[in-house]
Amino acid sequence: MINRRAFLRAGSSGLVALIGGGVAVYSQVPVIPQRPTLDLETAAGWISYNDGVYTLTLPRIEMGQNIATAMKQVACTELNVAWDDVNVELHDTDRPGLKPTVGSESVQLFAEPLAQACASLREAINDGQRAGHVTAMARPKNQLRIFQPGAFTAPRPPITQGHAIVTGQPLYAADVRRPGQLYGRVLRADASTEIASRPVGWNLKAARQVPGFVQIVENVGAPIGKAEGLGIVASWPGALDPIADALDVEWSVEEPDQTIDIHASIDVDARLSNGALPKQVMKGMPEDGMWDIDLRFDIPLAAHAPIEPRAANAEWDGSRLTVWAGNQDVFYIRDFLSDAFGLDTEQIRVQSCRIGGAFGGKTICTVEAEAVALTIAAGAPVKVQWTRAQEYALGFHRPPSSHRVKVRMNGNQVSDWSHDQVSSHIMFTSAVLPRWMQRGTDMFAGDGGVARGMAVPYRLGCARSAYDLVRLPVHTGPWRGLGAGTNALVTESAIDEAARIASMDPLAFRLAHIDDPRLKAVILEVGELSDWANLEQAEVRGHKRIGRGVACGVYKGASYAATIAEVEVTPDGSVRVSRLWCTHECGLVINPDQIKAQCEGNLVWSMGIVLSDALPIERGRVIAETFPDAPIPTISKMPEVTIRLLDNNNPPAGAGETVIVSGPGAIANAVRAATGIRPVQFPIRPKTFIERSASAFQADTR
User: Fold this and answer.
1) What confidence tens digit (pLDDT) does each residue in 104-124 have?
2) Structural domain contains residue 595
């Protein structure tokens, strides 16, 4: 059997030949995340029985989506046992490999295999088997309890681990405490991680005078991008900041070839002036000529902004490495550490921990490798937790994007559609792939994350969409919904303008262009939920202008959502979302409360995309250090939210990201209705609307 490294060596030679014509040999191929096959034999290992107690080893990472609760519901229903009879444990790498927790796939891909395994275990126990291996046997879906009407007799059980969260139990990596534990940090230059940097001098004498100082570590493992680091170890976490200050590290920073203007580098119009974009998504060929709608949209970088900065604990006993990690792919972490530190994978155990927010951002190995380097050097357990400033500077972010959308109408129908986008990488993130390898993925694979959502779910006549990719000095990568949120913001804005050209109600206009009955259902339902037919799309209320907008969409061809937003715009241009109505359909509903929570979370992110998300950059590096530097929506900004779920007999699908395809567009369209101004640069800044909004207010008073 060929192993991973042999495969990578063999595969990389072909990639090198493709990229460089065989004239160069590249010595570094990054560790590639595994994608193990999901089968019933693996699923049988998730559930076990011993002395009257069932143990469910959660086959997904728990990062606040409460998949632990949903999977426990599946297990209890299929086993036909009480809630307290099943214990839930988080998995680790000593058990069979699992796919990374990404893509809103947990219920969609894992619920049925778990149910099959539980059904087989139930039958084995009923037949008198009390020990040994149980073979999971596939049976038709209609024989599984979870697919029976009213199967989930307790659809609103207590949140699994909920009591432990509020009582401060060590669920998160940052909460793990080991005997003799020390605390560490790796310092890196205040520069772009795309630029080579390394420490060349520091004041060790001054650092040693700081109470709590333990040691300096020069070998801190693999760089982050091209940024090498210097490690510090302390006996208590409060000593890390003063030690870092006392060291006063001198850095060697390679001068970039040029200071990259991120906005200019992704300018869609400048790129189109050099010819058509290479990566096609919708492959129609609209004729040249005049367009009824011609809009440009610009969306900046944005951070994941998890409440929990990433953290890891590591312990090395000389032969066995144990790591506690809040990461979406602990098997990838194990393989990365094996490669970076020359250990066999059998020597490494990575224990998954609950994650306090991840959103696609905690998928690569960073803080985990830092903790391992420091624990090996210190000979004691070490915890490393990034500061908020490190989260911004060293993580990867939602890429910026620049769009040009054109629409041609034939009466009340869209006859031609054109959407071009220039952005940076998501799936093939520059946080992992070196420049030479990324050129290969650009050439032969494109980036499905950037493309997600560019294939719109409407009947549009002759439609084309295409994109191009630019590597940036700030690392970009997966973000909630990948490109679906920003692409839907753009396309739903253009569809809204098309409805105005047609002088049609925007909800009715969408229905007239939709063939998918499930998409029709959610938009009809949100219209009823909000009483859309009896609402004014725009009105003046005192000194405020009120606007209402609608949007809908499909996520990954499986889950459906529609949103109606109401906004208030004041004469100074400030925008506040005052009401949100949302409908969501993702097939089988296991836990309505948790699905609604995911809808609410996506609506908060939708508000952020339109009104606040922007990561400040200076000379190719992130300069944000705290939440106020890159603000996110706060509880005081939350509007009244009404959500309705459409349950049906369709197979279960993902709910974690779906509403992000409809929320941003609805909010932007509501602003357009209130002000008569189409938002095209995000986030919306009050000054954008001051003059034109003032003109609109004056017109209403005349």
Assistant:
1) 899 999 999 999 999 999 999
2) yes
